[in-house]
């Protein structure tokens, strides 16, 4: 036997609807308070963060002005350094465009065959070396000399050209003159780098 | 009976009308109570929404604007700070190396003097080199000064010089010239064998072969550049080539010979050797006996 009124809802419909409404209201209140709190917290955090940023910026500006004072005090040294740099740049340019004549003369000495006697060496500003001398007993040493100069590994001589050669019957010697177009100092230094940079075999 | 029914009808009507009246009278107060209750029940939500809206309007929107402005300001200030820190660091480093800086400036000014007043000292250096290399100076003259068009390029001092001696000594002279810190470039030269006059009995033939070299030389001077318009950036970005300083440091500097000069003469057209007094130990004759030194006027 079933219990009476078990399937009958004695709670009025209004009451359950009102309870549902009340529960929704409570939820709405809760969420709105949470959201409002979150927004407030965000705002306050942003405000505090900005204050800190401002403080940091002010601190940085203070540091900048402090360093600026230091720079103003030390600028004189900087200017001296700048002047030094300018002078050294000029020195560098001079040294890099300078021809090492001691090396050049030494190289000519080394490449001169024993049968040749040089009488004059003339170097023109354009980088032309004129050599004149005697060769004994024939023209052959001149050819050797020319080849030696052209094949010199110092890369000093760009073009070796026999300008004149004349047999002197009285002395039996050959008077000759050679014009050598010299490599520019820059080319010489590049060639040196290449030679030094090559792996040794 | 009929009267009674009529009376009942009238009463019913009265009751219904009064009920309606009562109902009509009670309705507004109930409704307002319900509305107030509703409003009160939503009060928290309303306040929360109001707080949220106010927070957004008063706090978040302006602070976000501030945040953006501060961010860009922060980036600018930080970049300015890092630049200025680098500049200050460079200058402080330079200051800590001030002794080295002063020494380096001295070396660089020995290589390229600041003033053309140093021209006689350049000529004197050439004579010292000749003396050290044991070659005779046959002639020396200042042929002119070429002024540079730009302040960062050195002015050129053109010199002609001739020396004679044996081959080794002349080679030494050229080598020493190239190794002199006060920069002197050889532009052109003529190196020749000197035929000894066999009829001249005064020539000592045991001296061996003699050579002569005539050279066109260039030395330099460069006045200090004007740095008043320079910014710290320009200063900091200027590199000092250390290798050049090292190279110059290895080159030989010829100190100018110290000669005490008495200034003031009764008659400038007379040769008054008594007016020149040498310091103890100082060489009083910078030009070798055979040298035919000549200094032409400088424009």
TrEMBL record, chain A:
- The answer to whether keyword Nucleus applies is no
User: Which InterPro entries has this protein been placed in?
Assistant: Extracell_DNA_Util/SecSys_Comp (IPR052534), PilN (IPR007813)
Transmembrane spans = 31-51
Could you tell me which Pfam families the record lists for this protein?
Answer: PilN
**Sorted UniProt keywords:** Membrane, Transmembrane, Transmembrane helix
Signal peptide from the UniProt entry: none
Q: Which PANTHER family match?
A: DNA UTILIZATION PROTEIN HOFN
The name this protein goes by in its record: Fimbrial assembly protein
Lineage, broadest ranks: Bacteria, Katanobacteria
């Amino acid at each position: 036997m079933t219990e009476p009124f078990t399937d009958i809802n004695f709670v009025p419909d209004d009451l359950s609807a009102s309870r549902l409404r009340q529960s929704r209201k409570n939820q709405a209140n809760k969420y709105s308070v949470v959201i409002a709190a979150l927004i407030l917290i965000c705002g306050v955090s942003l405000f505090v963060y900005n204050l800190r940023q401002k403080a940091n910026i002010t601190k940085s500006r203070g540091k900048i002005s402090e360093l600026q004072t230091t720079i103003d005090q030390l600028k004189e040294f900087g200017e001296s350094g700048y002047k030094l740099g300018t002078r050294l740049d000029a020195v560098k340019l001079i040294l890099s465009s300078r021809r090492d004549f001691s090396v050049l003369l030494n190289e000519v000495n080394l490449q001169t065959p024993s049968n040749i006697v040089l009488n004059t060496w003339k170097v023109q500003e354009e980088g032309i070396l004129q050599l004149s001398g005697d060769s004994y007993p024939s023209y052959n040493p001149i050819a050797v000399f020319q080849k030696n100069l052209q094949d010199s590994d110092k890369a000093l001589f760009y073009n070796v050209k026999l300008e004149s050669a004349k047999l002197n019957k009285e002395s039996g010697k050959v008077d000759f003159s050679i014009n050598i177009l010299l490599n520019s100092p820059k080319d010489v230094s590049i060639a040196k780098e290449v030679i030094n940079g090559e792996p040794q075999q | 009976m009929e009267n009674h029914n009529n009376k009942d009808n009238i009463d019913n009507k009265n009751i219904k009308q009064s009920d309606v009246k009562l109902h009509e009278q009670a309705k507004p107060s109930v409704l307002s109570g319900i509305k107030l209750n509703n409003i009160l029940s939503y009060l928290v939500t309303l306040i929360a929404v109001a707080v949220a809206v106010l927070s957004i309007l008063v706090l978040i929107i302006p602070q976000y604007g501030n945040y953006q402005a501060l961010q860009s300001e922060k980036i600018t200030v930080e970049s300015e700070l890092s630049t200025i820190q680098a500049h200050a660091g460079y200058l402080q480093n330079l200051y800590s190396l001030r002794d080295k800086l002063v020494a380096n400036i001295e070396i660089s000014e020995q290589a390229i003097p600041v003033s053309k007043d140093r021209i006689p000292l350049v000529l004197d250096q050439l004579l010292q080199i000749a003396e050290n290399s044991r070659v005779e100076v046959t002639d020396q003259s200042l042929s002119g000064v070429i002024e540079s068009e730009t302040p960062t390029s050195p002015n050129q001092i053109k010199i002609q010089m001739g020396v004679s001696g044996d081959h080794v000594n002349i080679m030494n002279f050229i080598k020493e010239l190239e190794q002199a810190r006060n920069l002197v470039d050889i532009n052109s030269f003529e190196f020749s064998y000197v035929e000894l006059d066999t009829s001249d009995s005064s020539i000592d033939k045991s001296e061996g072969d003699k050579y002569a070299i005539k050279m066109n030389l260039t030395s330099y001077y460069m006045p200090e550049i004007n740095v008043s318009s320079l910014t710290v950036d320009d200063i900091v970005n200027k590199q000092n080539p250390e290798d050049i300083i090292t190279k110059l440091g290895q080159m030989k500097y010829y100190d100018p010979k110290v000669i005490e000069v008495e200034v003031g003469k009764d008659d400038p057209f007379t040769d008054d050797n008594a007016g020149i007094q040498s310091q103890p130990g100082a060489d009083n004759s910078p030009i070798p006996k055979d040298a035919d030194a000549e200094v032409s006027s400088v424009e």
